[in-house]
Predict the structure.
Amino acid sequence: MSESNAEVPRFAVVGRVNKGKSSIIASLIENDAVKISPRPGTTTECVRYDVEVDGRVLFSVIDTPGFEDAPRALHWIKQREVTAADRVQRVRELVDAFEGTDDFVEERRLLRPILQGAAILYVVNGDEPYRKNYETEMEVLRYTGQPAMALINRTGSGEHIEDWRRALNQYFKLVRVFDAHAVTWEERRKLLETFATLQPPWERSIVEAVDALRAQEEHRRYQVANIISDMLVDALTLHLTFVLPDERALPHEKARLEREFHDKLRAIERKAHRKIATVYLHRLDDWSPETEIELESHDDLFAKETWDVMGLSPRALLTLTTLTGAAAGGAVDAAVGFASVFAGTVLGGLGGLGVGVYELTRRFASASNLRERAAD
């Protein structure tokens, strides 16, 4: 780290593999490139991630490998009795004594940035039972003398959180529960502000970081609002025209036309989804607009559950589809090829009520927006 960045807060994230360590780092730094894998040993080297705004480093997060043999490392440290004031030096001796050897490789890697001044974020999984063998890891970390905080990652029921909390409170100044997969901006802000209590000299830097990230978040919301407004304009003005051989084909083609109209709306939604993800820095290398969004059946735009959740009654939906069909221009026009008479038959809305309802609680932008007209 350069001299100009000497006061930048640094946090070493320590924990066993598959306990949510990399996920927490990814959420803190908003970088999907952090290696997250179900295979053990994903993180084999220390990797530092600098969080920047306008080219200025606000803070750094260091992803460390998990302990390899904490009990043996602690035994080596305790072989020589020292006072509390000399414990940090004893940990330094462990790192130096085995440099260039195959012993304590992971321990030396994860301890080095801590001994260089990084605060400790110790991550555990609150969905798994607490076990006594974690205590040797926490004891080694306590010997470093660095400010330390424990994060209990909650990804499921969290049934063992209280056991973890009671144990962790004995080793760490601060213990927090954190769901890396459902973190909001406010939770991220609170966690960053908590960091300031770990190391008071960093308080000013943390406050500046939070202010910069808050301004960034406000700008993102403005961008997302524009994306959503553009999406709504595109969706509400969507207009498809199909040429059919004669009017008798219309009843048979109705389902296909409706399906194509729905698919066009879904495509508009996917496009906006990608743009919003990009605003929030999510990497989309393996995702394209042609890739199906993995949604539960009730999350689809045209699922009954979607409208039930919104609290819209069939009567409200009937009014809504009438208005959107008549005023917003979101319609499917079925043009009968070379017909000489303009039928003017509205197959939805309030005209032709039997078709207008058309299983209205299950479909929006459906047959209520399907009109028949003669081709010019």
